[in-house]
Amino acid sequence: MNCRTPFIQGLRDGIPIALGYFAVSFTLGIACRNIGMGALAAAVMSASNLTSAGEFAAVGIIAAQGGLVEIALSQLVINLRYMLMSCALSQKLAPETPFWHRFLIGYGVTDEIFGISVAWPGRLAPSYVYGAVAVAAPGWTLGTFLGVILGNVLPARIVSALSVALFGMFVAIIVPPAKQDRVLAGLVAVSMAASWAFAKTPCLAGISGGMRVIILTVVISAAAALLFPRREGGRSDA
Fold first, then answer.
1. What is the distance between the alpha carbons of residues 227 and 238, in angstroms, rounded to a whole number?
2. Less Cβ crowding at N or C end of the chain, within 10 Å?
3. Among 18, 2, 9, 44, CA closest to 130
4. Long-range pairs for 215-222 at CB < 8 Å and ≥24 separation?
5. Would you say residue 197 has pLDDT above 70?
6. d(CA 12, CA 15)
7. Do residues 42 and 29 lie in contact, with contact meaning Cβ atoms separated by under 8 Å?
């Protein structure tokens, strides 16, 4: 495999992510406009902070005239799951991968990019992640920028319908590997059931979405590691 192939494949895999990001960030841009944020400021925020939940939370805090400390703490809690994803991706990188590659990959870790990156066969090529980020990040930033400028040109129902693309993309990422590995398929089912239970249980429903992801990720992945350990080659002992 030549050095250009992973980057080109990343570009191709990043296109549907970019389209989904555009639809969601367009809505974010409208929210930014509603609180008086300019298009340039909103675009810089999106370019430097690739997180839908984090940015929507930040916009809400700004609208409520919250302080910088409150914004910083909210981002820490909401985006803490990306630290877990980065730890998982670090295990797929070759041991000799330079720090600057790891640093740049960390910038682009989102739920969707993590999904396609962790599914990359064998050692993860940094150029693959760069290819995906090269289209996904501009899609997210451009959507925010145009959302501020164009405002409510698109009906809210259309923007909401477009955002369904993100869920479809998650399904496309999860289903193929799950069909090949019954343990993975079982873990996906358990994760979905546990997430639903969290949302419906009165004493747990108040936990934020980001913290819920962190708790379920740690608990379920730890249980899977103990019950279904994998050999060095990546095959499960189950």
1. 8
2. N
3. 9
4. 216/191, 217/81, 217/84, 218/84, 220/187, 220/190, 220/191, 220/194
5. yes
6. 6
7. yes
- Reading the block at residue 98, the tokens are 């330079």
Render pLDDT for 137-189 as a digit per residue (tens, 0 to 9).
999 999 999 989 987 676 767 666 666 655 665 676 677 777 888 888 888 88
Core vs surface per residue 136-151: b (16+ CB within 10 A) or e: bbbbbbbbbbbbbeee
Torsion angles phi and psi, residue 123, rounded to 5: -65, 140
Inter-residue contact 118 to 86 (CB < 8 Å): no
Q: Is the Cβ–Cβ distance between 188 and 182 less than 8 Å?
A: no
Q: What is the CA radius of gyration of the chain?
A: 19
Side chain identity, residue 135? V
